Amino acid sequence: MLRRLLTAVVIPAVLACALSAQADTFPSRSLRIVLPIGPGSSGDTVARYLAERLGNALGQAVVVENRPGADALVAVQSVLNAPADGYSVLLLTPSMVAGPLMNKAALYDAQRDLRPLTMIYRASAVLVTAANSKYASLADILADARAAPGVVSMANYGNTYRVGGILLGQQANLKFNHVNYKGFSQVSGDVIGGVVDCALVDGSAALPLVQAGKLRALASTARARLADLPSVPTLRESGLPDYDLYVWVGLAVRSQTLDAVSQRLERELIKIMATPDFRAFVARLGSAEVMAFTGPQAANEIARETERYRKAIGNIDMGQH
Length: 321
Fold this sequence. Notes:
By secondary structure, this protein is α/β, with parallel strands linked by helices. It has two domains: 29-122 and 247-320, D-Maltodextrin-Binding Protein, domain 2, CATH 3.40.190.150; 124-238, D-Maltodextrin-Binding Protein, domain 2 (3-Layer(aba) Sandwich), CATH 3.40.190.10. The protein contains twelve helices and ten strands. The chain has helices spanning 2-25, 42-58, 73-80, 95-102, 110-113, 138-147, 159-171, 184-192, 203-211, 259-273, 276-283, 295-314; strands at residues 31-35, 62-66, 88-92, 114-130, 153-157, 177-181, 198-202, 215-220, 246-254, 288-290.
């Protein structure tokens, strides 16, 4: 009886001390930020900016790992399979909200399995084609897609752009041939090379290629014209008043991570994002706006986004695309 009583008292106390020590010494080694996207996107650029400065603040290296593939599942599983100790951080994207709604085999739930640290920024997407394409305007490509359903090809990478492309076709009463890729660099290369006709992509990543004369922007998903692309119409002003697509990027750890560890990471990230240098950095991306949400604010936003995507996906037949 006494032995059982001592066990009931001592073991929890030892565990509590161990967890407290873990939080007190965090971080004692390098961290990693796992990205579901490849190099070249605005999310990759911002993650590398934050990794360098977070490492300086914590006194430990923060390494960026690009793990695109399987609609973000590769990156998500890499973090969920790691210990819940704060040393593995996931770059959050809308694909992680949409993925489990589109694919029950995903076997994860962003709200259940992940603890948001922050939402960093949100950005608009742009519909692009090759600079030498026969499509000079949005009207041109929509006319072709209506005349030949399923022939005009649209590249996408990740669930967000896939859903966005399908909704574009649905609202315009036409059908594209949707082609899935792993990341922006592969998509942009094939659009420029004429392998695919168009793509709905990260506006910040596409902007340099548009300015360099390699891509032509046909429309943006923003609510107002982008300052860096003033001649490019929005989809809303082009006859699709209900179209709404933006991409946000955040950071998260496993949901079981200690409060003290999560809060330390959150505090350091919020400090970095509050600097004029960071805001100027994001402004240079072209189509992005800083969010700098706290962890609880980010969790609330993800809950709202989950319902938004649930409604959007419920209105389309994914099996037909």
